[in-house]
Amino acid sequence: MKTIIITGGTGLIGKELTLYLLKEGYNVVISSRGTNKEEFISANQLQEYEGNLEVLELDYFKNSSINSFVEGLVRLNICPDSIIHNARSLDTLKIEENGQSSVENLLSEFRMGIVGPYELNNSILNSSIGNKLKNIIVISSIYGIVGPTPSLYKDFKRQSPIQYGITKAAQIHLTKELAVRLADRGIRVNAISYGGVEGRADEKFKERYSKFTPLKRMLNTKEVIKPVGFLLSDGASGMTGHNLIVDGGWTIW
Fold it and tell me: With 90 as the cut, is the pLDDT of residue 33 above it?
């Protein structure tokens, strides 16, 4: 049975991926900055999958956290086949009153989206549990491909942080770099750039968003899981360094 690590496994997309992969028969390890295994199982009624799920703390803003996370994997004798980099923090997406982003938040978002995942990959690959790793997936965004759309927001300067798009673009290039650098170890590295996903947006936002996509709607949470399933499958065995766009057509206009 294959084992998959999902960073940010308790968030909007991470939770859906966790539920899907458990039901598909995978062992899943999710990272969280606060939720423990018992809480996650109880909240999502996952008692039947208790033996296939682990929840380990991982906080990219704590210097020793990555080492502790990997030590936890080693202690549990967990050798991951795949890593899905999905962690994010709303705290790093704050914007100042003048509509600009602070240096601290710029650097923190980059640490969350680029530095942390890069370090985690290396820590696992350099450990005793890194031999089975064959698949890395980076969860990115259409804002890593195209610029933001000001008319989508009521207050563009204060609602669309520049550090988000910059980091998502960097994630797409990180995917390409890692695909080249890890190919000799038989590791595939791909990204998925999602469009807007329902879950936090109000009705007015969804109405504005629908005008920018041929499908005339945001993605639902169920639509984010099957593309990941495809990249994990043998059907994608010939793909590496690719950015799979799942956006309802946003980026074709």
Answer: no
Range of the domain at 215: 3-252
* CATH code for the domain of 201: 3.40.50.720
Asked whether the beta carbons of 201 and 209 are under 8 A apart, the reply is yes
* Per-residue pLDDT reduced to its tens digit, 162-211: 999 999 999 999 999 999 999 999 999 999 999 999 988 999 999 999 99
Paired tokens of 174: 């990180």
Lowest mean pLDDT among 23-27, 40-44, 92-96: 40-44
3-state secondary structure of 80: coil
Exposure pattern of 194-209 as b/e (b: 16+ CB <10 Å)? bbbbeeeeeeebeeeb
Closest CA to 219 of 244, 250, 252: 250
Half-sphere exposure of 117 (CA within 13 A, CB side): 31
